[in-house]
Please model this.
Amino acid sequence: MKKLDKRWYGYLGFLVLVLVLPLILTQSYHISILTFAGIYTILTVGLGLLMGYAGQISLGQAAFFGIGAYTSAVLTTQYDLSPWIALIFSLLIPAVLAYIMGHTMSRLSGYYLAMATLAFGIIVHAVLVEWKSVTKGASGLYGIPKLELFGFAFKPGISYYYLTWFFALLVILIALNIIHSRVGRALRSIHGSEIASNAMGVDTGKYKMQVFILSAVFAGLAGFLFTHMNYSINPGSFGLDASILFVTMVVLGGMTSVWGAVLGTILVQLIKLFVQTLGEHFTFITSEFEYVIFGAILMGVVIFMPRGLFPTLVSAWQKRKSDQSTVQENQAA
Model:
C-alpha cells in the first residue's frame, strides 16, 4: 500500500504543477508551447506503452495522429457535425485501422514491424495529399470550428491549455493503471522475452494488439485536440518527421516509464523554445538547428543513459537515498 501511495503522490504533484504553470508562465506564447506539450504527451504516452512495454517499434504514429485530426476536421467543416460527435470518430477510425493493421502484421516484430508502420505512415500521408476532394490536398483544411461546451468556447490560451491537460492527465492515469495491473505485468514479460511469455501461457498476440489499438486511440485524441486548436491543418504536420520526433520524445524520456514519455515530450518542447529564442538573437541559427540539438542529445542519452532520462534519474535518486541510509545506519552503530 505504501508504494501505491507514493505513486499517486507523484501524480498529484504533477497535477498541481499543471494547474499552477499558467500562473507562472503567463505569456501567450509559453501557454501555446505548454498546450502543444499536452497534446504530444497524449500521443507519446501511448507510443511509450507500445515501445517500452509491448516492445513494438512504431514509426507510424503520425499517421494515426493525422487520421484523428483530419477525421474531425472533415466531419465538422464539410458535414457540419458537432466536434464532440466527431471526437468519437477520431477515436474509432484509428482504432479500426490499428485493428486491421494488427492482424495483417501480427507475425512481424522488431525492425520488420518498424518498416511496416513506416510504410503505413507514408501511405496515409500520400492519401492526405492526393485525396483533394476530401482533404483539400497540400493546402489543407481551413475554418475548423472551435470547441464549445455548454456555451463556453475553448480558445487557444488558458482555456484550451486546461482542456488539453485534462485529457493528458486522464491518459496518464489510464496508462499508470494499466502498467500496475496484471496486463502491465504481462506486457513487461513480453518486452523481456516474447518466447518466454508464450511458454508461460501469456497470450502475447492479444496484449500486443490491445496496446497497439490503445496507442492509435490516444494518437487520434491528440489529433482531435491539435486540429481544433489550430483551426486549420495540412498534411505537412503528419509526415515522417513527426513520427521520428515522437519516437525521439519517448526514447529521450525513457521507454519503460510513463513519466519518461511525459518528460521527453516536455524536454523536446523546451528545446524548440530554446532554439527559437536563440534564432531571434543569432541569424545563423535556423529552425533546422533544433534537429542538430535533438540528434546530439539523443546520441548522448543512448550512449550514457540507455534507459532514458527519467529511469536513470530515478535510479540515481534511489541509490543516493540508499547510500545515505547506509551511512546513517553505520553512524548509529
About this structure: The radius of gyration is 21 Å.
